[in-house]
Amino acid sequence: MYKQIETTSVITLSNGAQSKPVATLADEYGGVCQIVRDDRCYVIKLKNNNGQYEDTTHIFPEAFEVLKTLPNPR
After folding, report:
1. Is 0.90 surpassed by the pTM of this model?
2. Strands (E), 6-66
3. What SS3 state is found at 61?
4. What is the C-alpha to C-alpha distance for residues 57 and 44, in angstroms, rounded to an integer?
5. How far is the C-alpha of 34 from the C-alpha of 19, rounded, in Å?
6. What percent of the chain stands above pLDDT 90?
7. Would you tell me how many other CB atoms lie within 10 Å of the CB of residue 56?
8. What is the rounded CA–CA span in Å between residue 36 and residue 10?
């Protein structure tokens, strides 16, 4: 189960770009989720096997709860 933890300062995306997350979640199995802003939207990224972050196609319940606490990403 993912839980919100201290936000990571900078992450590397799968295309090599750097991003500053607005929220970080982690689970007990080493999974890490980052919520980032992109084009005035929030995007959920999951850590892959290379330590980089890729878009996810699903909004899981724990991420949804964190998204509800964030301001409008204008």
Report:
1. yes
2. 11-12, 18-19, 23-26, 32-38, 41-47, 53-55
3. helix
4. 8
5. 10
6. 97
7. 13
8. 10
